[in-house]
Amino acid sequence: MASKIDPETTDRSGEEHRNMAESSFESFLTCSVCLDILTEPVSLSCHHSFCKRCLTEHWAQQPSRPCPVCRRTSSKEDLDVNFALKDATSGRGSLGCTSSFRRRSRGPYPL
């Protein structure tokens, strides 16, 4: 005997999967320093990505240049923008980087 498929349950399940996928994608595009959508995204050799400004400011306080997530020391001198992530974040409705570093009134920051 074939079991009946409840269209309401099927639709809800499909919607839940879409929401989970979108949430996962959003977290992939989120800077773990400022918790906003990546702005001028840069990626480290450990494959973690951050806003260029967030990472630069983090490293200004941490001379050993650790990754803010895994603490692995980076040997990168220049931070090149990850254009694949930049394309993925364009049009995502970000208001820009809201780094806690920037929220402090310490003045302008170099990029």
From TrEMBL:
SUPFAM superfamilies registered for this protein in UniProt: RING/U-box
RING-type domain sequence ranges: 31-71
Positions of region (Disordered): 89-111
Pfam families from the UniProt entry: zf-RING_UBOX
Domain of life: Eukaryota
Keywords, in A-Z order: Metal-binding, Zinc, Zinc-finger
The protein's name: RING-type domain-containing protein
GO molecular function, one term: zinc ion binding
Signal peptide: none
Biased composition (Basic residues): 101-111
